[in-house]
UniProtKB/TrEMBL annotation:
The name this protein goes by in its record: Lethal giant larvae homologue 2 domain-containing protein
Organism: Hypothenemus hampei
PANTHER family the record matches: LETHAL 2 GIANT LARVAE PROTEIN, TOMOSYN, ISOFORM C
InterPro entries documented for this protein: Lethal2_giant (IPR000664), WD40/YVTN_repeat-like_dom_sf (IPR015943), WD40_repeat_dom_sf (IPR036322)
Length: 276
């Protein structure tokens, strides 16, 4: 609290303020992101202007097998996370891919790094008791095992391919890292439902229904890819402990009939021997 009398007159306005105080980002099905000047919309006579357009589809190779009449939009943007301080942008697309962009004022010629990060787990069908202790990450599933995927399956199932070699990047948001989620046994991966970036810690995290991924955007390595069952282990409140099936009435009747039949056969055998 200030000891000065109200009103306080101090401070100066910066002459070099931000030109665009308000910016709106819109995502589109063709894989593009548009930056709009929201401050211009305050005036009735002015319409919002497009400041910048980013095409994420340029990061990938053009698919030869995909027809022009196809209704699928593999480059469609689903999620956006922007850090204004570091000017880092990460987007998640319809093909379960995540792209990290960094804003640069100069043109460069660099190669985009690619990481294939699976989010899978194995279901262990062993007997689980209610007194089972927490198993911990990595024991309930095998999200870190790449040998679960066949190489042929990865080649056929992967819908997007990042362009190889150094690519010419104009000034603006330039792609630095692409995280791909490979297919599993011919099945496409789940859609990414959450995405965030933290430039202070140099981390990017995203997840879908099966699990979670954390990536170090400075070293460009995957720190964690874990399935949801690995996070809960045996203490998952939504999991049901497998139990032995209960005997139905039909099974009980069958067991009684078999016992009676066996007793009747034994009595008949005894009577035959007595007759002899």
């Amino acid at each position: 609290m200030s000891e000065r009398d109200w009103p306080i007159t101090s401070g100066t306005w910066s002459a070099q303020g931000c030109r665009y105080s308000e910016v709106i980002l819109t995502r589109h099905a063709d894989g593009s992101i548009k930056f709009w000047d929201a401050s211009a919309g305050k005036s009735a006579n002015l319409q919002r202007q497009v400041l910048y357009k980013l095409k994420t589809s340029k990061v990938f190779e053009k698919s030869k097998s995909r027809s022009t009449e196809s209704e699928d939009d593999p480059f469609a943007i689903h999620l956006i996370s922007l850090c204004p301080e570091s000017r880092k942008l990460c987007v998640a697309g319809a093909s379960s891919h995540v792209i990290l962009f960094t804003y640069k004022k100069s043109e460069c010629n660099e190669e985009v790094m690619t990481l294939e990060i699976p989010i899978v787990y194995e279901v262990i069908e062993d007997e689980i008791s209610p007194d089972c202790q927490f198993s911990g990450p990595g024991s309930a599933g095998s999200g870190n095992k790449l040998d679960l995927f066949d190489s042929d399956t990865k080649k056929e199932g992967q819908t997007l391919r990042v362009r190889n070699g150094p690519q010419k990047k104009p000034p603006g948001f330039q792609a630095q890292l692409v995280c791909l989620t490979p297919w599993n046994n011919g099945e496409p991966p789940s859609q990414i439902t959450s995405l965030t970036i933290n430039s202070s810690y140099g981390l990017m995290a995203y997840g879908d229904e099966p699990g979670l991924v954390i990536v170090d955007i400075e070293q460009r390595v995957c720190l964690l890819n874990v399935g949801s069952p690995d996070l809960y282990g045996a203490h998952d409140p939504y999991s049901r402990i497998p139990r032995s099936p209960k005997k139905t009435n039909s099974l009980r009747c069958c067991s009684r009939i078999s016992i009676r039949d066996s007793r009747g056969a034994l009595a008949l055998t005894r009577s035959v021997f007595r007759a002899k």
